[in-house]
């Protein structure tokens, strides 16, 4: 929601204020040469007079209030309140797999990614989304689907469940309710199939690549992989192989790297080279709050790649201010008529 | 101001009395103020500078010395005007004229009569913060000054009406018995001024000229706002239009007028309620005639 012609609104409001100010400063001059009378104190003892005065005052206040409402509504109306939406016509044939590393080091970033996507789902028309999480093994939370109710629900639930500082909990620095612990345990269930291993990123990525169906149809396919690339075990694939297998299936790879946790620069370098060798893009930010803007960038670059010129579609919402303006006008006319 | 106030009042009084009340003021003080004016106090030897017309030729013939009639100044009647020069008097009168003009004219009528009979007129006016007082004098210049003082005092910026102070002041500063004319408006003197007025009547011959106020609703002239001169409150058009309000207001005003009239009647004070400057000359003269008749009967 924004105003297309906000300066017109501003202008009208300033004009309204100016008119009021001029009227205020000249209120004496605007009095129609008053007739002086005397000895009217007794009027306060006349009940009907007191009532009339009170009523007149209420009417006057109502008139002013309605006039102010009218001016405000008219200014809003002339400001053209409109909602803007970036519409990308060919965007509908997208398949997106969210591929999240749910090792303990990633928990804040995963939550942000899931929340951001949950918020974006309502703007989707035809896109399909899948969610896969992995640690030592992979679990598909939900496969590619365009059941947006389900997607939104699952993403929201996932975001809530994964908002869990596992290391902190184990070290005893963070405390959670038993329900919360159970919720988290249930969500990451199946991602620790191998004992003593964690964050088998290449295998997780390869598993995500398997999630795409409809290989024969011409769809845009992308994986959003969030990982810190700190492998802690024996992967079947190397990262290069996993990236290649993804690339072979004509899948675009977008990697979000939150910064080193335990591993040195060689982890980043490996992730970077593997990503770039298959034409993917890597984003780095250690700030979980940067996730939404990164996902926006992914959206944009994807749109550009698909040749879809994102068009800004403005939809005017004149109804409320229009009705208010109209009602205020009617009110002013009616009250003014009454006051005559 | 081009013409003097006295000149204008004189013209109006003469216009009115020429047809309606000629008898009232014929002769020097003959009718209005009995026993004054013509009475001379003493004869005295003519001194250079005395008026030749004052020589009493018969007495001169008898004594062989030029004698003149001396009209004792002390014998001349003293009139006093007690003018309510509060802000209320700067407002509009019932007939649409200014109450102040009506007050000046009413005072002018008294001054005119005093001028005709050579009486002296004093003034008590003003407010507690700025009292005004003029001594008893008979000269034309003094009368003009008196009227002008009233005219200049009764402005919208003047303090609010305080009839108790005015009557008290009139009693205190007027030492000798006078024919006292109180000029105020329809709301005054207030019923609570009864004691003050009664005390005033023990020493003075009191008359009260009351100038009626304009209708505060002014329902037939909604183009103009109505503002009370003493308290700036707006009277809404809603109230001004309402018949019911008009009825109740009229009843209230009638009751107030009647209450004051009853009080003045009870004190045997001659009084008149005049609609404003257009009617004040005729009303004051009518009041004086009524007073005359009462005196004649008494």
UniProtKB/TrEMBL annotation, chain A:
Keywords: Membrane, Transmembrane, Transmembrane helix. InterPro entries: VWF_A, vWFA_dom_sf. The chain crosses the membrane at residues 6-25, 58-77, 319-337. Residues 95-298 form the VWFA domain. Pfam families: VWA. This is VWA domain-containing protein. Gene3D superfamilies: von Willebrand factor, type A domain. Signal peptide: none annotated. It comes from Brachybacterium equifaecis. SMART domains: VWA (SM00327). SUPFAM superfamilies: vWA-like (SSF53300).
């Amino acid at each position: 929601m924004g105003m297309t012609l906000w300066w017109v609104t501003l202008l009208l409001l300033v004009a309204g204020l100016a008119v009021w100010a001029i009227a205020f400063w000249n209120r004496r001059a605007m009095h129609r040469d008053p007739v002086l009378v005397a000895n009217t104190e007794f009027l306060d003892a006349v009940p009907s007079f007191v009532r009339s005065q009170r009523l007149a005052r209420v009417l006057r206040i109502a008139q002013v209030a309605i006039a102010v409402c009218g001016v405000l509504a008219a200014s809003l109306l002339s400001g053209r309140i409109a909602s803007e939406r970036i519409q990308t016509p060919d965007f509908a044939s997208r398949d997106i797999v969210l591929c999240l590393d749910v090792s303990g080091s990633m928990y804040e970033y995963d939550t942000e990614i899931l929340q951001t996507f949950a918020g974006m789902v309502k703007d989707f028309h035809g896109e399909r989304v899948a969610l896969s999480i992995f640690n030592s093994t992979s679990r598909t939370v939900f496969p590619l689907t365009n059941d947006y109710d389900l997607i939104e629900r699952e993403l929201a639930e996932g975001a809530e469940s994964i908002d869990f500082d596992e290391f902190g909990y184990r070290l005893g620095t963070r405390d959670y309710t038993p329900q919360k612990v159970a919720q988290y345990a249930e969500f990451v269930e199946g991602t620790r199939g191998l004992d003593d291993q964690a964050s088998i990123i290449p295998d997780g990525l390869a598993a995500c690549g398997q999630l795409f169906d409809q290989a024969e149809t011409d769809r845009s396919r992308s994986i959003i992989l969030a990982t810190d690339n700190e492998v802690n075990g024996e992967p079947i694939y190397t990262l290069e192989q996993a990236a290649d297998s993804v690339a072979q299936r004509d899948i675009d790879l977008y990697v979000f790297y939150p910064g080193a946790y335990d591993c040195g620069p060689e982890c980043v370098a490996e992730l970077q080279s593997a990503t770039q060798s298959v034409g993917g893009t890597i984003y780095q930010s250690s700030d979980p709050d940067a996730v939404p803007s990164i996902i926006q960038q992914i959206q944009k670059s994807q749109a550009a790649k698909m040749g879809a010129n994102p068009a800004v579609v403005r939809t005017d919402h004149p109804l409320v201010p229009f009705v208010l303006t109209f009602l205020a006008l009617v009110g002013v006319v009616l009250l003014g008529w009454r006051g005559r | 101001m081009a013409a003097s106030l006295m000149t204008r009042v004189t013209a109006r009084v003469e216009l009115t009395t020429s047809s309606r009340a000629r008898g009232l003021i014929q002769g020097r003080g003959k009718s209005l103020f009995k026993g004054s004016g013509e009475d001379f106090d003493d004869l005295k030897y003519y001194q250079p500078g005395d008026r030749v017309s004052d020589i009493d030729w018969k007495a001169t013939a008898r004594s062989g010395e030029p004698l003149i009639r001396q009209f004792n100044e002390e014998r001349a009647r003293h009139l006093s005007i007690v003018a309510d020069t509060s802000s209320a008097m700067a407002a509009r009168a019932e007939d649409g004229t200014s109450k102040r003009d009506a007050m000046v004219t009413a005072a002018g009528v008294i001054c005119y009569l005093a001028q005709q009979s050579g009486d002296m007129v004093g003034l008590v006016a003003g407010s507690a913060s700025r009292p005004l007082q003029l001594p008893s004098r008979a000269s034309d210049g003094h009368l003009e000054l008196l009227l002008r003082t009233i005219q200049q005092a009764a402005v919208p910026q003047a303090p609010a009406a305080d009839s108790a102070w005015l009557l008290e002041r009139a009693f205190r500063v007027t030492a000798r018995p006078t024919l006292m004319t109180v000029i105020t408006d329809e709301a005054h003197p207030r019923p609570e001024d009864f004691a003050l007025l009664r005390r005033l009547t023990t020493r003075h011959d009191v008359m009260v000229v009351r100038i009626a106020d304009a209708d505060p609703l002014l329902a037939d002239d909604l183009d103009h706002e109505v503002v009370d001169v003493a308290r700036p409150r707006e009277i809404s058009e809603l109230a001004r239009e309402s018949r019911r309000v008009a009825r109740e207001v009229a009843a209230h005003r009638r009751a107030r007028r009647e209450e004051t009239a009853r009080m003045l009647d009870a004190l045997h004070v001659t009084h008149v309620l005049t609609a404003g400057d257009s009617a004040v000359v005729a009303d004051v003269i009518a009041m004086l005639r009524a007073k005359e008749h009462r005196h004649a009967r008494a």
